[in-house]
Amino acid sequence: MRLDLVPRPHRSPLAEALAPALAFLAAVLVGGVAVSLLGVSPAAAFVVYFVAPLSELWSLQEVAVKAAPLALIATGLAFCYRANLWNIGAEGQFVVGGLAGGMVAIATHGSTGFTLWILPAMLAAGTLAGIAYAMIPALLRVRLGVSEILTSLMLVYVAELLLDYMARGPLRDPAGYNFPQSVAFDEAARLPALMEGDALHAGVLVALAAVGLGAVVLGRSLFGFEMRLVGASPRAARFAGFSAERLTLLAFAISGGAAGLAGIVEVAGRIGQLQPSISPGYGFTAIIVAFLGRLSPVGILVAAFVIAVTTIGGEAAQIDLRLPLDLTRAFQGLLLGLVLGADVLTRFRLRLVAGTAR
């Protein structure tokens, strides 16, 4: 006896729309059981995880600031994943983008006169650095056939160690009492706040613009169609005259540029200086966000919001309820698995077949 997946002749739009919501509900129920086994009321945990982050203005701003880099990176990754290319190194591209853009801010520190060019130059440097770093696994795949999964992942650690060295060495603030950090960026090198004295900054608008642009390109352009076709049927794409090599380079350039831009947005927005670590794992979490959003920019925006809410709620639960932060990461992984499983069941049905496996 075995179970086979048989394609459904007719896919229900209602089932496909409800699948993520039902998967989220199932993840909440499983999470409630886990919380109760730890001796905490599931109702209290639900309030801390999902209600409290949405109940006050400051927490909503924190959710938006955390969701912005996730949505920006995941939108870039969607281009790769739709083409069946696997960029696992967005974390490294994020770090390199923050480092390159931060170096522009440090090089212009203390400048007077016309300084309006500094912030655009930082954003451009971060984006270009992310593109250049993403080109390494892309070129290795195109020219030598090396797996982009391994190379992009290993390059993450190279980027993190490079940032650590630069923050502790050449870029360290000489007047910083030997702390491993650069000088604080000038006001001209910081993203402006959207609300006076609050955490919300213009990087949120950058992420929203990127998501909108990604939705247009993926959904309404020939390039987006080419991306989907190469991912779904490489042989048909070759017959149509599309170049898989060119698409690989373009997809990695877009995803690397988005990650690099997210890196400098984080540094110029929330942090305001270079430190040995500038990311809490945005590049890896964005992979979850991309698939939770079904590789659709609009879905990615919703998924980034959900992940940001659970992250803020998880930090509060660690303090208020003494729940481990790893429980939040486990919930996010469970949510991804359930959403992917629900998507499979909307497209296929299970059939029990007698006999041995083929």
Automatic annotation (TrEMBL):
The chain crosses the membrane at residues 21-51, 63-81, 88-108, 114-136, 148-167, 199-223, 244-265. It is found in: Cell membrane. It is a multi-pass membrane protein. It comes from the Bacteria. Keywords: Cell membrane, Membrane, Sugar transport, Transmembrane, Transmembrane helix, Transport. The keyword Lipid metabolism does not apply. PANTHER family: ABC TRANSPORTER, PERMEASE PROTEIN (PTHR47089), GUANOSINE ABC TRANSPORTER PERMEASE PROTEIN NUPP (PTHR47089:SF1). This is Simple sugar transport system permease protein.
